[in-house]
Amino acid sequence: VILIRARPIVNITSTVGPAENLRNIDPSKAGCLTDKASTVTCFTFETCFKLEPLVLHDSVKEWTVQIHYKLEAEIFQEDLKFSRVWFGPDHNLQSSTIENDVSNVYYRNILCQQHTAYIKENTVDIQSPIALRITYSLKENEIPVFKPGDPFPSLNGMPLLVQNQSEKTFFAYFQKECGDNDICESQVQVHAELMLTKIHDTQYELVIGQNSAIILNMTVFNNGESAYESRLFVHFPSSFSYINTVKQNETKYVNCNPFNDTFVVCILGNPFKKFAVSNIQLKFDSKELNGIGNQLDFLIVSNTTSREVKPQGPLVLRVNVIKRAELLLTGSARPEQVFYGGQIKSDSSVKYYDEIGSRVLHTYQVFNSGPLKVSNLEVHVTWPFQVASHYNPGKWLLYLDEIPVVKALNGGTCNISQEYINPLGLLVRSEVHDVLHPHESIDSVKDALVNQMDLNSTTDKNSGKEYYLNRVRRELNNIVNTESYVRNKEKPLRFVKIDCLLGNAECFKFQCVVNNLQKNQEATIFIKARLWSNTLLQISPKVGSVQIVSRAKIHLPFELSLQQNRSDDKFEVVTDALLLALLEQKENGILSWWYIVLAVLAGILLLALLVYLLWKLGFFNRRRPDFMLNGEVEEEELDESHELITRNS
């Protein structure tokens, strides 16, 4: 015998309401009908269900089953791990899922459960609807165990539920300022500019070191419907660092925060309403720009979850980075004028420094007015060490006695071949005074030169004056011709300019490196040498003055890519050497003028003294008659005459 038994099949019908409670949820308004004291937005709704058998018979009215339901918010959707809402009444748990059992469910009996959902704080997405799902299932009773001979248990209390109707998904909608189609069609536009020198519509110029910080000024406006989750993304070069957002009084303050080292995100509004305008200024630190590329880009993009009517593409602002350090090169010669003279002698007989001639000091100074520091600055110096001679080389001119020195805050060095430093190996003679101390007077210079001439003299007849003069005349033909000028019309003085550029001087070049020359700092190069008097005497006996020129030039390595004014990167320093005989003439001329002036003053003083003595002796007083006295005498005579006449009568 085969017994076939069947369980009853039931449908479940579910509804959600009221519909108005699931629409126009205002996220800016806290509380709801069932929880007015809530500090966050909430909304209340009901889920209802009823059971209906597929086959209706009398025993259905006696059914009592137990229903299990599960209410979920959003997390049932794919790729969503968090929900924007949580269900009460447990405010501490804040669960986005509710599960409960409903007992004693009868046929066609409608049962409802009330739920309150709370919007989480700081919820950004208030445009897309909140998805909710209710799922029902039967809690089956355990089938009783019966023994042989017992009656079969009834299956009426163990129905089967049709699964395709046991689940319902519904939505809760936020209040939106959109059109009739319930779709927000926004039109967000961005205008951006950098507070720098503009060279084109979207290109700017930034001079390193000139600005410690730069401002990115942006104006955002919406000409369409409300834009939800409206954000502004700013990507900036890694060479900059974000400082803060500058507060503007004219418009609503927009909160901007760094997302990472090169991104800043600004929340425009949720929603960014129709016709809204917002001005945003971001400040960036630009102090660490040394060593970067020549161009840097700022990328600005706006974004919203609303539908964009006329989407604006990324806005690119390009910054041309200018490395500028304005350098100035100047120089001077000390002393301003030196003197040479004495007898001509062979160079091979010179053993000591003091036999060469006067000390000279050429100084070159580099000043950096900024705004950028210069890490490795080179100064190339051209030094005239000999007079150009085709047949008789080796006529010394400015003889270096030590390596040039760089004095700067961060130091520096001069790279020069050792062969140019005291190539003859001359010695220092301690008993001879240095004739070119900067603070010495002309008289001391003259006396020292005279003493030097005495030391250089010799008793050998072959080394006499006439012998050397003849030798000079022969060597003059071998020296490169120089140009002579008359520079004083009253007393003509011919002088020679010895310069590498004129071709009448032999020069060598060396480099001096200055380390990290900062803004408003200077570096000084000191070049000490001796003026070789012997050579100047051999140039021409008729020339009274010789000008010797050294040159320097600033050189910047190509990799620095510095921009600056090149017109003041060169300088020349001139040592003006005067023949000692002309110095004596000059002093004699000065003395003769003083004699005249003193004689005139003495004459005037003597004349004044003579006039004073004559005045004291009364020489300048004249005798004049006293008319008052004469009148008194005449009056007395008239009185006497009147008395005589009276008596006679």
TrEMBL record:
It is a single-pass type I membrane protein. Keywords: Glycoprotein, Integrin, Membrane, Transmembrane, Transmembrane helix. GO terms for molecular function: integrin binding. GO terms for cellular component: external side of plasma membrane; integrin complex. Residues 178-321 form the Integrin alpha second immunoglobulin-like domain. The chain crosses the membrane at residues 593-615. It holds the Pfam family Integrin_A_Ig_3. It is found in: Membrane. Residues 329-557 form the Integrin alpha third immunoglobulin-like domain. Residues 6-174 form the Integrin alpha first immunoglubulin-like domain. GO terms for biological process: animal organ development; cell adhesion mediated by integrin; cell-matrix adhesion; heterophilic cell-cell adhesion via plasma membrane cell adhesion molecules; integrin-mediated signaling pathway. Its main location: membrane. It comes from the Eukaryota. This is Integrin alpha-PS1. It comes from Sipha flava (yellow sugarcane aphid). The gene is mew_4.
